[in-house]
């Protein structure tokens, strides 16, 4: 079981926080930096986060349970609608919402749209997080903080960089301070409640996303279909990458299978790091026609 020593102030706090913001503002990177382990996938392509993944940051004086949501956006497909419903359900339930805005881009209509939506979640405390301060000048940061201040009365405003780790300790202090006094909600060893297969599938999808062309990211999904331990102890994993159209299959596989080999190689390294053991990874690319619009297919892929 867990071994939690309480600090001077005495009170242990635990609760749920969700980071929201436009695509690509650094929510997943922040989650990973706070948790200290790779949980949510990160990618330079927007909207790559598709499911609510919990990362748990353990501290001597509390636990921050991070619910990573897909971005809030206007739905265009059935997948989009489901994702928005997921966001609604998640945000209705958290103690703190961290509204992320990058320091190196001006506040735009997208930020304002999301900020207004925060009114729908009166239960949650609201913290503005200025991300990527390593990419902005002092005066840009000050301007941006001032503008953020005009949006609403925040419970706190914190500038951070997940890449240089700047102010991450301040942010976790602030977030924890806003959490209810509570006994630990999870064991100290636990950093996520996602299943291992789901995490492996995310690593495969992340590898396949790398270098993928514009049209592809939203069409990619991955599943782990089977696993077997060989006599020599090697873990065999059988997984599928799904695309929506025949033409996309060729793109993922590449000339003579070269691209798929690279994807497999990259994913295998990440999976081995996650599991702490050697793995044989078999990847197959399958076409699931228009799966984003097909409720049966969405179910099959775990949405
Ligand atoms: N320089 C800098 N880059 C960052 C920082 N945080 C994230 N990034 C980069 O910004 C890009 C997007 O980061 P993500 O964490 O995937 O963004 P996200 O908000 O989770 O994106 P979605 O999943 O699309 O909603 C990646 O290329 C990150 O490496 C930061 O603190 N500094």
UniProtKB/TrEMBL annotation:
Renumbered residue ranges of the record's region G1: 21-28
Region described as G4: 131-134
Region annotated G5, chain positions: 160-162
Pfam families: KH_2 (PF07650), MMR_HSR1 (PF01926)
Domain Era-type G: 13-181
Xref: Gene3D superfamilies: 3.30.300.20, P-loop containing nucleotide triphosphate hydrolases
Residue span, KH type-2 domain: 212-289
InterPro entries: G_ERA_dom, GTP-bd, GTPase_Era-like, KH_dom-like_a/b, KH_dom_type_2, KH_sf_prok-type, P-loop_NTPase, Small_GTP-bd
Region of interest (G2), ranges: 47-51
Chain residue ranges for the region called G3: 68-71
Molecular function terms, GO-annotated: GTP binding; GTPase activity; ribosomal small subunit binding; small ribosomal subunit rRNA binding
GO biological process, one term: ribosomal small subunit assembly
CDD domains: Era, KH-II_Era
Membrane topology value: Peripheral membrane protein
Top-rank lineage group of the source organism: Bacteria
Family: Belongs to the TRAFAC class TrmE-Era-EngA-EngB-Septin-like GTPase superfamily. Era GTPase family.
Subunit structure, interactors included: Monomer.
HAMAP family, alphabetized: GTPase_Era
Protein name: GTPase Era
Organism: Leucobacter viscericola
Gene: era
